[in-house]
Amino acid sequence: MSDIKPTESELEILQVMWAKGECTVRDVHDELSKSKDAGYTTTLKLMQIMHEKGLVSRDTSSKTHLYKPAISREEAQKTALDKFIATMFKGSASDLVMQALGQHKTSKEEIDAIKKYLDQFEK
After folding, report:
1. 0.70 cut: is pTM over it?
2. How do strand 56-59 and strand 66-69 relate by DSSP bridges?
């Protein structure tokens, strides 16, 4: 599964499915239409492609096909983050962290949580 990299449009569809669970194409299309101009046939085609790629599974036992995610949110996040770090930070996770901390206001609670997480690696 690690070699499957969802596109931005596929991730939008997966976001809907992770929130709702099993969905018809209409369910996904209606949700996407709330925030963007998406054609039904485009949503249908993307979901068919996602099925071929193994990103979603499809139940065809009834007239209306039901789709559900075949990749977890965590798997998708890991894949996207790995790709982002590789392309934007030349594989350096520390450069990513330093950039994020240097460019965004970070609360004391967030800093404490980061320190606690990093402490695990020093033991």
Report:
1. yes
2. antiparallel
